[in-house]
Amino acid sequence: MEFLTGVKKREAVGIQEILKGDYEGRTVKINGAIHNIRDMGEVAFVILRKAEGLVQCVYEEAKADFDLRKLKEEAAVEVTGVVAVEERAPYGFEIRLRSADVLSEPDQVLPMAVNKYKMQTSLEARLALRPVSLRNVRERAKFKIQEGIVRGFRDFLFCQGFTEIHTPKIVSRGAEGGSNVFGLNYFNKKAELGQSPQFYKQTMVGVYDRVFEVAPVFRAEKHNTARHLNEYIGLDFEMGYIEGFEDVMAMETGFLQYTMELLGREYEKELKMLGVSLPDVSRIPSVRFDKAKELVSEKYSRRIKNPYDLEPEEELLIGRYFKEEYDSDFVFVTHYPAKKRPFYAMDDPADPKFTLSFDLLFKGLEVTTGGQRIHDYKEILAKMEKRHMDPEDIASYLMIFKYGMPPHGGLGIGLERLTMKLLDEQNVRETSLFPRDVTRLEP
């Protein structure tokens, strides 16, 4: 009988092991995919691609016990060689090859040159061949940075006393209402894919005070724009015992400060590869919704067409205004009109036409929506009555208010949008691993 006692130590080493250890002149085993082969005649460079980055290997026929011709690009291999210092190589070292074992090799020639620094292909081609195009180092760098954003979100909120939760995505009713839901036949019952974890994270405030979730959300909007996806990753949190919705905005500011510092410290290689300059988030301006529209109208001579909504062009101009006037890439726009917010948004006591809510714009694009929620049972029933809503439709949600809830608020951040603007991409599909939109269900 055999027993497993934990993670098995592997003979093959990684890039970080070599960098942190005393490996110069030592023979090591390392594995990876063959990213590129540059045959220079007497010498050839075999570049291995690992999760950590690229490793330069040097092939010399007189010193290696295998034929270079047996290696193909994108083959998975395990090689043995001697570590040598080489400042011109990635990470400052190279492996001088002695032997190589081919673990698997491609059946066909790749349909695109993923080993090029920049792939000269269209977005559509890259998305159609996503399992291949994601092997490109720049494509990989985008999603390492996205990893850092999620790490920052989790780590920061844990430090602030939040509990991570996991809520259902098959629901009986969407939190936002409206027709933009994906309907399901759930064992002969009507169900939907969740538009938001809103009801559940509010419920859990009554349990843990502060909660967060990183999970997909679904919107059946028939938009085919550069800023919309039908499935995206939401970074959501909800916090109780707040003094006002400004507490939620302050918490998001703290998250951004923590995350930008984390990215600068631990993702420097990817940021440099993509030419990304991290924004200054030491202070983020805040402006009322109606005031923002006035400022843009006056400075850019743009007539206010709809006093109760922000059009994409207005968001761009608000972003431009606060960049020009305050050198800020971010701006909180507060006090959105009540008619543009869900029923659970708390109205502004000073003027019920507006709500104690906000959006965060990043370089002119909305990346966050949040605010204070109604926590009083009678108040939420009254607002539902004004909107001709039937309390029986969401009885399980209203239960939490019957038995007492603290003042609370929260927000939802679109991960792909935030990543898109951070990387200065022009299409949100660039920052979705396998985007789902009105035309795309595969790969």
Describe the structure.
30% of the residues lie in helices and 27% in strands. An eight-stranded mixed sheet has the order 6-10-11-18-17-16-13-12, with helices on both faces. It has a five-stranded mixed β-barrel with strand order 1-2-3-5-4. Strands 7-9-8 form a three-stranded antiparallel sheet, with no helix packed on it. It has helices at residues 15-20, 123-128, 130-133, 137-159, 198-208, 245-266, 268-274, 289-300, 312-326, 377-386, 395-402, 415-422; strands at residues 27-39, 43-50, 53-60, 76-85, 93-104, 163-164, 170-171, 183-186, 189-193, 210-218, 231-240, 286-288, 330-334, 347-348, 351-355, 357-362, 365-372, 408-414. With 443 residues, it is an alpha+beta fold. The model has no long low-confidence stretch (mean pLDDT 94).
